[in-house]
Design brief:
CATH superfamily: Alpha/Beta hydrolase fold, catalytic domain
Order of helices and strands: EEEHEHEHEHHHEEHEEHH
Low-confidence stretches: none
Number of strands: 10
Largest sheet: 8 strands, mixed
Helix content: 25-40%
CATH architecture: 3-Layer(aba) Sandwich
Number of helices: 9
Strand content: 15-25%
CATH class: Alpha Beta
Oligomer: single chain
Number of domains: 1
Structural class: alpha/beta
Length: 283
């Protein structure tokens, strides 16, 4: 489907983490950060369109793709941001341009706020966190989190008899996907079990949310430290709220927003050419 990247590895918090590289090392650096339960190769179509101008690095976050799983199954935003900081130190190519999606968008925006001098530009597809809800008492959140942990300890990863079965599940998750793209994502996002069945590469524990709720005040303080241009993208058919209307965009100094029609949460898959047009203009 695409040119094959080179695989490289680095270490963060004693975990061996993977990233894929396209393009010449001498080109300006561009980092791609995927969303939850996804993987580095979700960016292939984007990477091959940018590799002549950039050296493109697509990371597998901990617990995803070909990166190690976290001991104990803890996956928090600060740990993901740490992993990006460790990768940036490994690359030693700051300032980075970053394109990111969903969880990856949250990671990219937090990283850019913590290290504003190390980021040139940020594109975040629906990376501003969940819609705000009425707060739940901390004791109830902790009880619920522990209950879910017990349940997850008893769960086994889902197994698919054939890759076609896994592809069907992939398209159920995102009906916008073409058959070709669903196959590509499944091929690189699954692993073969000893009995010949397939399971997803991601650690099931990445599904669990922290008992500590999203703190919008702290997120805004971090976003407010960002000094580079920020592009916020969302799909017209997605669940994501409008950052202009919900007030989140006001935390940024230099930003623009884009709504992509006929796209869901995975804008870069659902409307690739339109996405690339918007991104190229921004870059």
């Amino acid at each position: 489907m695409t040119d094959e990247p080179v695989s490289r590895y680095y270490v963060s918090q004693r975990l061996k983490l993977h990233y894929a590289v396209w393009g010449e090392d001498g080109n300006p650096p561009l980092l791609l950060i995927h969303g939850n339960r996804d993987h580095a190769r979700t960016w292939d179509q984007v990477a091959v369109r940018l590799k002549d101008r950039y050296c493109v690095y697509a990371v597998d976050l901990r617990g995803h793709g070909d990166s190690a799983w976290a001991v104990g199954g803890q996956y928090s935003l600060p740990e993901f941001v740490l992993d990006i900081a460790m990768l940036a130190a490994e690359l030693d190519r700051n300032p980075l341009t970053i394109i990111s999606h969903s969880l990856g968008g949250a990671v990219a925006l937090e990283y850019a706020g913590v290290f504003p001098e190390d980021v040139r530009k940020v594109v975040a597809i629906e990376g501003l966190g969940p819609a705000m809800r009425e707060p739940t008492p901390a004791s109830a959140r902790m009880r619920g989190w522990i209950k879910h942990m017990h349940e997850f300890d008893a769960r086994k990863p889902r197994r698919y008899a054939t890759i076609e079965d896994a592809v069907r599940r992939m398209r159920e998750e995102n009906p916008h996907l073409s058959e070709e793209m669903a196959y590509h994502l499944t091929l690189h996002g699954s692993k073969k079990n000893a009995d010949g069945t397939l399971s997803w590469k991601f650690d099931n524990y990445v599904r669990l949310h922290s008992p500590y709720e999203f703190n919008i005040a702290e997120a805004r303080e971090i976003w407010n430290q960002i000094r580079c241009p920020v592009l916020l993208i969302r799909g017209s058919e997605s669940w994501a709220s409008d950052p202009e209307q919900d007030g989140k965009a006001s935390a940024f100094h230099d930003y623009r927003t884009e709504l992509v029609q006929d796209a869901g949460h995975w804008v870069h898959h659902d409307q690739l050419e339109k996405f690339m047009e918007i991104v190229n203009n921004f870059l």
